[in-house]
Amino acid sequence: MVADPALSLPDVQWLLGHALITTTQIYTEPSADEVIERLRAHHAAQAVPRPPAAPAPGYRAEVLAALLGMSR
Fold first, then answer.
1. How far apart are CA 66 and CA 42, in angstroms?
2. pLDDT tens across 1-31, in order?
3. Cα(72)–Cα(64) distance, rounded to whole angstroms?
4. How far is it, in rounded angstroms, from Cα 19 to Cα 61?
5. Residue from 2, 6, 3, 39 nearest 18 by CA
6. R_g of the chain, CA atoms, integer Å
């Protein structure tokens, strides 16, 4: 339940009947396999080249390029 994004930690606390949220937080400790898998996924995502994001509306690309030293 703790891993379900639809449930908050206080929701799980209430469902399990824990008096203290710290008791429920024990269940948030990831296993070594979970950490390794997330780390591998992170590194795989970083290896994929991504185009730079377009500037937000209202910003001029040429000004940002000059300020941030980016090529246009």
1. 31
2. 888 889 999 999 999 999 999 999 998 888 8
3. 9
4. 54
5. 2
6. 21
